[in-house]
Amino acid sequence: MVVVVAGVVTTWLLLRDSGPDGDRDAGIDPVEIPSAPPGNPVPWSHSAVTGAHVQVSYDGSACQKSNGAVATEHADRVVVTAYAQVEPGVCILTAVRYDVTVDLDEPLGDRPLYDGACLEQGRAAGTALDPACLRTPPA
C-alpha cells in the first residue's frame, strides 16, 4: 500500500511542477493562454492529425482527470498543451491512456507540432524551443 501512495504522490508532484510563472525565454514568443483548463500541463507522446483536428495522447493513471488540451498557433509552429489534475481521494494506481482533441484555426500543414508541457519544462530550465519537444507526426 505504501508503494501505491508513493506512486500517486510522485505522479502528483510531477504533474504539479511546471516551473515558475513568468519564466519566459527571450527566444520564444510569450503567448498567454487565457482559456487554459484547470490542472497542470502533462507531456504527451502520440499525435494524429486530420486536417485542422489534432488528437494527442498521453499515459496517466486512473487517479487523474483529463481536462482537455489547448492549441496555440503561430505562423511557424503549433503548440498543443494537454491538462490533467489528480482526483482527490483514494484510488488504485492503474495506467490509463488519455486522448484529447483540439481544433486548429487552420490545418497543421507544414508547421511543426510541439508538446507545450515539454516546452514549459524547458522554459523553466532557460532553454528555447527544445527539439526534444517536437512531436510532428510522420507524414
TrEMBL record:
Name the UniProt record assigns to this protein: Uncharacterized protein
